[in-house]
Task: structure prediction
Amino acid sequence: MKFTYYSRILFFLLLLLAFVISCKHKEKQVTGVVKHKPAKSNKTAQAPAPKTGNGNTTAGTSDDWRQKLGVTSKQMKENKLYLFINEWYGVPYKYGGCQKSGIDCSCFTSLLCEKVYDKKVARSASDMYKDCDKISIEEAKEGDLFFFKINGNIISHVGVFVKNRSFVHSSTSKGVIINSVDEAYYKKYFFCAGRIRKL
Result:
């Protein structure tokens, strides 16, 4: 009887350990490029952001992204997307998270589309991809989605196009941040741009 009781406890502990391990994926940074190990979970994985040249691993301040994109204070106040980015910029990444204490890429994209463009989209990157018309980067307009295949041959990361080939997203290493699709890491894994279909 004791053997059965302890066997059950051991089984549940192993199951819990497997679940915890599957919810975390590690990043290795080599000369500013992040190599991403595939997550064992079938949930949407998040893309890490490469280190900046100065070795800083934080997202920075709102002034950083505004200067990077050439957005003036007046433009930020008049543009719902810029206001949303400013509100969320630097919020840390959290796997499965969907609030200011931590958020993942698909929830961030979903919230942005709802609050800025009044569009409901799916919760996972792969489902968002199915609900979009595929377009080229050159056709992308503010609010279109960028999809990435980081974990094998599946859509595993999503961000929102802002301007100048840049997109806002939640990365595992920096949280909500803006990157260019021309950066080596994102260029390597970029799959396509998509435009949410009108309902």
